[in-house]
Each structure stands twice: as structure tokens, then as C-alpha cells.
Batch of 4 targets.
Target 1
Amino acid sequence: MTGTPRSLRRSLPPFDVRAFLDSAGISRRVVRYARASIVFAQGGAANSVFYIQQGGVKLSVVSPNGREAIVATLAPGDFFGEGCLAGQPLRIGTATALVPTSVLRIRKEAMMRTLHEQSTLSDRFIAHMLVRNIRIEEDLVDRLFNSTEKRLARTLLLLARYGDVRTSPRVLPTLSQETLAEMAGTTRPRVNAFMNKFRKLGLIKDHGTLTVDSALLSVVLHD
């Protein structure tokens, strides 16, 4: 797909969240979630914005007949739940921790007040969110049109923050094959088969932690 390589080359603009919060005097709370814990549920009150410090989160929606669709998977450095800033009263989806996860929770009122009062910080935050939303759109395209192998390779590269010059080496958090299957929209046996293939090709190394080689991008670019 033409959209996938662009999404992997695009990095989020530099955005020091801690400096942003400190300089603005925004009150926030660190919240930790175990794997599979619900950060917020579909239909719940939308009253906070979240920022991932460690771990990962999936955003999903459930249809009236009970079918679940994963909208996006997010990693450290991503905001989510920002719909409340646009007047969204209730959550339109569910946010679930994929692994043990630590997030900053910022109350809607505090975030809105700061964004209104500090235009420079507001511009940086908006740019950050626009890039992230573009990536989510490309995630959906990836799920619809790309092969399982490409989807898994792209998932690993995004988790390893490929394209972010501030991230080196590209070491992933500990993730089970079941979690990777969920993130890539496939089954555990297929993930196992392709992970073995990637290891044999030297594209990933697994010695307690998983290290992703930038050469894995060749799998995504290959037609």
C-alpha cells in the first residue's frame, strides 16, 4: 500500500510532554494498569485526556450486535481520549492496556484552560495530535489491504518507534504472541510463523528482549 511507507518514515514532531505539563502547571495523575485492564469504557463519561508513559493501549469499538473492531494501537508518547476536548460527552470506544501500562491522566478542564491560554503549547499539541491521527488512519488502511506479514512487520516497527531519531536502540517491551496477533489483526500461529521467519533473516533478535532491525522495513516496502 502506498500509505504505509510514509507512515513509517513520519516521526511525531518533538514534543516534551513533561516540560509542557510542568511549564503550564497542569495537574495530572500517574495511573498504572495491568495487562487487559480497561482505561476507559465505551459509553463512559469523557472527562480526561491520557498520555502513555510506558506500555501500550488499544482503542476498540463494539457494535450493537457485539462485534469488536480495533481502531488503533498506541505506544509510549501517544495521547488518547482527546475527544473530550472537542465536546465529546461520552467515550465512543474502549481503551485497554495491551501490556502493563503507565499513563498520565489530565482532567479535561485543566487541559482546555492551558490550550486556550498558551498558544505556542497549543500549536505543538495540535501538530502532535494531527500526526498521530494520520497514523491511525493509515493503520486502518493497513488492516484492510495489506498481508499478514506486512501488518506484523509494520506493527513491530511502530512499536519500536521506527523513524524517531530519539529512540535507540529499537528495543520492544515484552509482548506475547497473542498480543502481537491482536495488534496485527491475525492469529497467534501466523504471528509465530512470521516471527520465526524474521529471526532467520536477522530482521529481529530475541534474547530476553526483542530488538527490531531497521531492515525490517524491506518487508513493508516489498510488493
Target 2
Amino acid sequence: MDIAKIRKKSKEAKSGIQDNTAEHQTKEGSEATGMQQKEKPNEKHTLHGEIRDNDKAGTNDISVDKKIGTEPKVKKESSEEEKTDEVIEILTFSLLKEEFAFKISQLAEIIKPQRITVVPRLPKYVIGVTSLRGKVIPVLDLKLKFSLTDKSSESIAKEKILIIKGPKGPIGAMIDKVIGVVRIGKHEIIPPPSHLTEAELKFIEGVAVVDKRFISIVNIEEAIAINIK
């Protein structure tokens, strides 16, 4: 499963909307220009002196109006729209009976489980290492990492491995099941419940409510950190 393809489809849909908007604005601008050109010949029927005086007065009035009210108002409205329209994409997945998510921008791809070699003297949540296109990468068991269980996975036949973009290279994260991609506004993300312990809170960046489902958005830095004692 290719994360890049999912993001590409989203961008193409957004680009199509922008093209239609630009075409509509161009059409409106052309019609407005045509109306102005039609009005100009009518000015010749008034007195020459009045035309000059009125033109000067009108020009000054318009420039003052723009400086005082028009331009700042437009800028303010556009900035408010940008904040409202901030949307992020998350990939939701399950661990036991809980639902979690990573931001799409943090992921490289999703692969099927493959041969994993155990490495001694590593934390229990590090299942081992595997090879991905010639690179050796560590694979983590997120259920153990998040303390959802104290037992490592006995069977990984139905599980998936998320390839995360780590600061020092890709890192694999074993999950139970991929649920899907969700687009949400940043303002829709709420803080995690205050009753959680400090150990639990450090893994949760925020919570999103989607179709009455509570989805915990994972703090990527803490999730992939490997603490070797």
C-alpha cells in the first residue's frame, strides 16, 4: 500500500477545485471590464469642465476609501479563511481494541509482515530488525511500546508494518489492522483526557472524534524512540 498515491489523489482533487475557481473569477473579471468600457462613451455628453472636476474628485475619494477600509478588510478575511481551512490527513489503525492514528506526512508506506531477526539486549518492544530494499531497519511492537499488553505478538500473519519516516532513517511499527485515511481540521483535534498517567500522555498528541469514534493521534517522536539502558 503506497501512502504517496493516497496523498496524490487528494492533491489532484484539490487542484481541480482551484482551477474551476480561477476560471470563474477570470470570466467575472472580463464581464466587469466590458461593462466599464461601455460606460465610458456616456461621459462625453456632460460638460467638459464638470467631467474633469468630477473625475479628480472621484479619483481622490476612491483612493482614500481603499487606504482606510477596503484592503485591510480583505487581508483579514483571507487570513481567517486560511486558519479555518487547515486540514490534515491521518492514517487510522487498530491496536487490540483501541484506535490510533499517524499523520500521513509522517509515513512512507505500509508493508506486509516479513522475516524479522531478533537482536539481543534491546528493549522488549523492539521485535528485531528486517530488510527493506537493502536497508536494515528496526521493527517496534506498538502494543508493547504503549503498554497495552505485556506479551509480544505470537502470530503476525494478519498484521501490518507501518514504515515511519524517522529522523535517522525509516523505522517499522507493527500494528494489528489498517482502518483507513481520514481528513480532519486542525481545530477538531482536542487535548487528550487529563485522567491519563504521564507515561500514557507522552504518547498521545491529541484526540479526534470521527463518526463517534475516539481516535488517539500518536506523538511520533515518543512512539519511535528506542531507549537502550
Target 3
Amino acid sequence: MKVYLNRRPKAGPWGGGIKTVNKLAESLIESGHNVTFQLEEGIDVIFCIDPRPNDGGEWYQHFIDYRYDNPSTKIVQRVGDLGTHSKPELTELVHQTLNYSNFLIFPSEWARDYIGFIGENYKVIYNRPMKEFHQHKSDNVDLPEKVRLVTHHWSMNPKKGFHLYQQLEDHIRETEEFEFTYIGRKPDDVNISNYIEPINASQLAEELAKHNIYITASIEEAGANHVLEAMAAGLPVVYHKGGGSIVNYCEEYGVEFDSFDNLLSAIRKVIEYYGAFKDRVLSYEENNSIVVDEYLKIIEEMT
């Protein structure tokens, strides 16, 4: 079978979507399939990771045109980014493409409901972290005098919650109640004392595991990977109730908040019952090979 992926694998500190592309391309080849990254003759399945133009300028309209000339070709659309982080044009494009795909994959119930999809030709497949994020986690429930909080983001979109991270940093400077580390990219006007620039997955997995509790203030995430990486590293999660998929992913493994005061209360609650939260998150053993296996099964069932 020849499968077209409209995004190419990449190395380095990229988001979860690219990490999944890397793994999917690898697994397709290992399963004996021919993988291509450009529209060419003989494609059986077009796997759309993002409907927008790729580096070669190919986008969803090209997929429709290709199928018009090749009616047996199927389009499988992984609905990832919904444009909720300041990309209304992407939200509209996803809306327009839903009725043209033969099969749709949503990363969360929240994503399916937000985009307003009604139909039966779909499956909700939660994102999962890379295996290496499980490598350094510890079952130690003894907390240090200053509990170590951590978060990480590669995007600088305001919906990541930078204003709350700054409030947390300011609170810590005044009270010394916790320690807080920010990993990734951030706006210049966000001043965090313990700041680490973007690092690769292996380094990130090791760094996350040095902390006790993960914080995310991000909202309206269609398929958040950062919290899954934290859970794989063995960290209970304090998350925003407007987090979208984050709520779907984390409700069994942490505590939600909806304001800065509630953020502090949620952190203190996790500290108070740390043993119970730690035991629960240590039971999270999933990795992205499960996601790729499910994608592979759907692709192979299309022909």
C-alpha cells in the first residue's frame, strides 16, 4: 500500500504532532508500506495531519482534486490543531474539510465537540507520550521542603497561560513557598528565574522527572501532549478547567483550577495528598506506539 503523509518527519524539540508523524512514518515502513510525502501516482491512502499547505504547497484542496481523478483513494484526516490558539482561519478550514474525509480521527472528545462534528465515520484516539518520557520516573513520595513545580511549552501563544505563570513566579519570589521551573519558549516580558530553553525529548524526560508536580495554565487544547509527557514522567498535574483535551486526559491524575487563587489551592491539595496522586499517575503507562498502532490499523482498513 502506498500512503501519503502531508507532513515530513523532523528531528529536534518539536510538538507532539511531529513526534507522532515521525513514529507513524517509521511504523508504516516497518509494516511493509510505501510512504511518500508528495502527491504522486498510485496513492491508496492520503493521511492528512494538517489541512493547511505543507512545505511543498500541498493542502486539503489538492487531496480532493487527487481523489476526483483517483476515486479509490481514501482520505483519513487526523484532526489535531483546531485553530483555537489565535488561528480562526484554521478552525474554518477544518469545518470545511470534515464532510470530505472518508474517516476522521479526533485526539479528544473535547476536540470533536468543539468543532461540532456529527457523524459515525470517526474515532477518538487520545494522544500518548513517547516511550522515553517513562524512563526516569520515580515512585518516591517524599517531598522536599520546597516542592518543585514545572511546566513546558514550545509555543508562545497567550492561551498557554503565561500571565498565570508570571503570577506564580511573583508569588514564589515573595513567599518562597515553592520552586518553579519553566522549560521551552516564552515571551520576553515573562520573567521566570528558573528558565530552561527548549531541549530535546531525552533531556526533557530527564528534567521533568526531577520535579514533583506539573502545572499547566493552557486552555482550549485539542490534543495536549505536554501534560502526557509530564504524567509519563510520574508527575501529578494541576491543570486549568478550560484546558479542553487536558481535562479529558488529566482528570484522573490531578486537580483543576480556574483562577490564580485556585491554582495555589490546587497545588496545596496535591501536596497534602501527594502519595495518592503519585500512585495514580504512576499507573499511567501508555506511550505513542499505541496511537500509531491505532492509526496504522485505520489506514490498513481503508482499502
Target 4
Amino acid sequence: MIYLDYQATTPLAPEALAAMLPWLEAQHANPHSPHRPGRAARAAVEVAREQVAALAPAGGTVSFTSGATEALNWAIKGTTGGIVTLATEHAAVLDTVAAEAARGRAVTVLAVGADGLVDLDRAAAVIRPGVGLVAAMLVNNEIGVIQPVAALAGMARAAGALMLCDAVQGFGREPLPDGCDLIAMSAHKLHGPKGIGGLWIRDGVTLAPLIHGGGQEAAGRSGTLSPALCAGFGMAARLMAERRDIDAAHVARLREIASGMLAGWDVNGSVEHRYHGNLNVRRDGLDVARLMSECRDIAFSAGSACASGSGRSSHVLRAIGLSEVQARSSIRLGFGRYTTEAELRGGLDAIVAAANRQGAL
């Protein structure tokens, strides 16, 4: 199997697995217990917290969550005032914002251009006093476009609002913009385990709790933490910091190969302002379902894994102006640290050949 679906999830780093195993095999104490084994577990959690926080800005703390979906829900539901967000955000933001709108909060969802980028003049017109939260994704999970989050954060601050950045796809890979107050992250998108994420909260920012109970996390999140998941997340974050330049160079080389092999395909979203490990492309008349059936030994995507099986075309592709037919003729390819050049070439050879066969019929 050739794996080209890094936006859905990334392979677990062997070092992260090794960091987790002791806490799965023998060291089972609750990290919130006061006895010695509990304190040892707590120490492991705090080491992991520091490792993750090293990828975030100074002047804030990381609260562990069950994943980015919880982190985003907490950040949105834990704040007050109107909300401004973008039409291309992840469902974890858009659906949560819709739920808040149903409860009476004012919500503005900004359109994006054909390149997937928000118009900053339009954003400035609606990010005004009375808005309590601005939410924008750093790297789009479907088309890889990098939004001008720093500019949006400046507008939010001027209006007295908080800035929430969904950094899931870019955490540890792309520079985190200045001015954010809340940053959501997920371990399994950076070669860590599934089931754990985090919310970075700027010092001085308080959120109403989303989950009530023991209040184990200092910011108010309740629930017993898993030392194993925390340790895996921490090690994955440490590797992202240590390998940042190596990984970036490798991904850039893979992107160069992919771009050459897919010449003639149309790229969805901005070519300039995007993360190199994401390539969302379309070919007129392509039957993606048939393509995926013929290339069943290659893992790639027709859109977000979170929306697969819904029967709907990508809301992101529709938001950048693609027709239903064009959206359904698009595929997403994701690659990264553990993708070899040979795997990428082999996978793309098979995809292009299968697409060409469709064109010949």
C-alpha cells in the first residue's frame, strides 16, 4: 500500500510509539493521584506538555484534549460575543459555529476567493467591536491554502476580539502567526497518536469549561489524562522541532516531483500560498470513484476524511467556486516525512495511468 493521505492522518513515528509503550505496558498510575507512581505519571505528562508547547508561541499554556475537535469546540463555546469565521473552515468549526448561532450568537461566515484566500478588506469590514471571536484555519485541510492569520489576528485585537487559529495541518510545519489567543492542534497530524490534541491558551485568556468534572487541567478541562498518549504527543512534537528543516526539504522535493508528474491537471486553490505537502488537483471528466477503485493499493482522498461517506461534494471546493462536477473530479494527495520518492512516483504513475484510461474511453 502506498500512503498518500497525510492530511487525513500521518504515520505514527517509531519514536513516539517507543515513548508510549512503558505507560501502556507497566506504568498504569493515574497522573492525578498523589502517590509516587501517580507523581511519576504526572511528570511524564508535564514533560510532554513542555515538548508540545515548544512548538507554540511563548506566553501561553497547552491544555491537553481528546483531539482538535474538542479543542475547537472548547475555544468557540467557551467564549462570548459575535463570531467571524471563513467558509472553508473544518466542520469542527463551522458546525460548532452553527450551533452557537442557533443559541443566539451573531455569526458571520466570510466567503473566500477562487484561490481559497479571504479578502482582508471584507474581513476588516465585519471584524468590528462586538465581535468576540475570529476563527481561521492556518493551513486548509483539503486544499492546503495558508490563510493570512496574522492579519486577521491584528483585526481581532483592534476590535477587542480573541483570535482562534485551527493550526492542525500546519502545527510544527508552518510558522505560527503572531497575535493568536487560542491555537488548536492534533497529535495524529504530526506523527503522534490518535485520541489526543491540545488547545494553546494565551496567558490571561479564560474560557468557560466545555467538559465539567474534576477540572484536572489548569485551564478548566476535566478528565483523566493518558500518560501514554501525552508521551506520544510530546515525542512527536519534539521530532517536529528537531526535524523541521529536514522534513521541509523532503516535502518540497516530493512536491516538485508531484507537480511535474501531474502537469496538465488543475490545482485547486492558491499555488503560491499553500503548504507543499498538500496537492489538491482536478481533471475535467474524471470519475474519482472509479479512479479510487482502480487504484485501491494507493491511499489518497477525494476530500476530507471527516466528510467521507456523506454523499456531499467538498464544501471547500464549492466555496472556491468549483461546480459540483468539478468538485467531484478532484483528488487530494498528501505526503510527508515517511513518503519515499519511489513510492510517490509509483503511486502517481498508477493514478495518472488510470485517469488516462478514462480519457481514452
